[in-house]
Amino acid sequence: VNSASSGQFVSFVCGGCRLFGTLHRPASGVPLRDVGVLMLNQGPLDRSGAHRTSIRLAARLSALGFFVLRFDARGVGESEGEWVTPAHGEPIRMLWKIVEEGVWVADTHAAIDFFLRELPVKRVILAGLCGGGLTALHSAQHPKVVGMAMVGMPVRPQAETHAVSDLLDEHIRSEARDYVGKVFTLAAWRRFVTFQTDYRTMGAILLTNFRRALGFRVSNDCLVSASVMASFQQAIKLGRRLLFVYAEGDYFWLEFQQLFLAQFPQASYGFGVASVPHANHTFTDRVGLEQLERILTTWSSGLGEGECQA
Amino acid sequence: MGTAFRRGVDGLVEQQQWCGEGSDRLYTMTYQSSGRGGPLVVIAGADGEERDWASRALVTGARMLAESGCTVVRFDYRGQGESGGVYEETSVASRVSDLLSVCAQSRTLHRQEPIVLGVRLGTTIALLASQSDAGLTDLVLWEPIADHAAYINVLLRQNVAAQMVVHGSVQKDRAALIAEARGGSPANVNGFLLSGVFIDELLALDGVSFDIDRRALVISVAKVQGAMAALPGATYTRMPCLPFWKEPKVHSAGPPVWIDPTLAWVRQTRASVLREVS
After folding, report:
1. What is the distance in angstroms between the Cα of A150 and the nearest Cα belonging to chain B?
2. Is the separation of the CB atoms in B4 and A97 below 8 Å?
3. What's the ipTM?
4. For residue A2, what pLDDT is reported?
5. How buried is residue B65: exposed, middle or buried, by Cβ count under 10 Å (0-12/13-18/19+)?
């Protein structure tokens, strides 16, 4: 975890903007791998990642002989570039939408080119959490990309799933069951009468569940977002290795199983899927985080078996 | 996608540097208009998850101050962002020490006393640092934490909410989390592990009055309460601002609006430095 302080400052240019990054060189005495790992911003958070997840993972990978580059894309962290859209004060989901559609592909390709130009790596693995996973998927067409690890990646457009009524049936039923199950719980009533309950969410869940029980439902026809489908199919066509990882406490895991896997069966497409029990979207629990790190280092090691000349 | 971004200001020099040595060294970034050496501002940022959400706003804020002639230094406390160290091993005292180290390095490099711009918990750190460094005479405090017990309470509420997500029920309440932290098992707040020492240091601050004689500009959304409301040399300004230190509900473009009154105050406070530069 301390390896943040062993990083090397780097910068490169994308679209006329200077992007800042931190490069982690392989630990001394370890055979150097010819595959580098590029870690992508998960959204508006800087290159250290939520609670420094990216730094932790970079430390583990560099200990295994990988060159690892964490960088801030345009408009995030320390890098240059101000968002033209959305406008100040617009819902944040409008920014998610732009990220989901691949706004940082050019930044990622610039980082890959920097990697190949400056370091003795021949191929690159892309890794990212949430929006970083989407950026990885959309950036697969770069010829030097060998694989992508996508963690907690949303498969539906977030701009279309901001209301309780947009959530999948199974989730609504499960949440409603939880609320009903608490009717005889003293602690739950205590929270309810002391204004600690999220009344709006509870009301929306129960109302949506009731409406669906009566047969009123919003169609989930949009299912997997068009940009995800297109980039996924292209990545498969290009022979990229794909790994999807989810926390089992993450709602995106449910959507991935029910929507994505239903449309793209794992057995037909040959990608990897892993899930981490008792973890949430950003893996805040240390046990889950360490399991995630083991999954990603094992998978990356399998892809990066070649050695390179220093 | 080619038009999603516009370039920022030309002519700014942005330089990454380490402060200190070894595995606990601190990451700093300096922003300066080329050829200018105006007032020096060191930013003592927010903490933990608030630091993560606030980082972009403070970068754009630093750029705006630099564009207006200031030399600005941002840094990460030990165990946070790009700095070395481990979060759970840090304390209020270590944060104060980090700020003092960065101020000392900045003072040497830029040959003037810094103004410290504290944000959220950084306001507390700035005040504590100014008590032990006579050179820190000018402070800008954004959204100070008036009640540290309430601050801890809000943080621990996130742990409780996370328990609901992962386990479907609350297994440890806030009192139990604090007791465990004191016993050596840090309280996990969205991935940031709060040690018992850190929690106790924060709780002890609520009985302390910051009766230091420093010039200060305090900017907040709501009226400041407690000891923070009674700083002898402070000017208090209330101004609406998007809470850039929290997970955003709306997009916030550009620097926080608090930059404008901050810049005006810096210009007034350091008029002599600006005259020398111009």
Report:
1. 20
2. no
3. 0.93
4. 45
5. buried
The answer to whether residue A20 neighbours chain B at the CB level (below 8 Å) is yes
What does the block give as tokens for B78?
Answer: 């030990």
Residue contact A89–B53, C-beta within 8 A: no
Buried b (16+ CB within 10 A) or exposed e, A237-270: eeebbbbbbbbebbbbbbbbbbbbbeebeeeeee
For the ranges B1-5, B76-80, B171-175, B234-238, the lowest mean pLDDT is seen at: B1-5
A178 touches chain B (CB under 8 A): yes
Tokens of A262: 């239903």
Q: Which DSSP letter does residue B250 get?
A: B
In sequence order, the β-bridge partners of residue B5 are: A83
The answer to whether the CB atoms of B4 and A103 lie below 8 A apart is yes
Q: How far A24 CA lies from chain B's nearest CA (Å)?
A: 12
For range B130-145, the mean pLDDT: 95
CB A72 within 8 A of CB A21: yes
- Identity of residue B5: F
Strand order in the sheet with A272-276: A8-14, A17-24, A67-71, A35-40, A123-129, A145-151, A241-247, A272-276
The answer to whether A2 contacts B85, with C-beta atoms less than 8 Å apart, is yes
> Does the CB of A134 have a partner CB in chain B at under 8 Å?
no
- For residue B85, what is the nearest residue in chain A, using CA coordinates? A2
CA–CA min distance B183, chain A (Å)? 18
Determine, for residues A103 and B1 on separate chains, whether the beta-carbon distance falls below 8 Å.
Answer: yes
**Chain B interface disruption, residue of A48, A90, A109, most B CBs within 10 A:** A48
Encode pLDDT of A166-220 as tens digits: 788 887 888 878 888 888 888 788 878 887 788 888 888 888 877 888 777 666 5
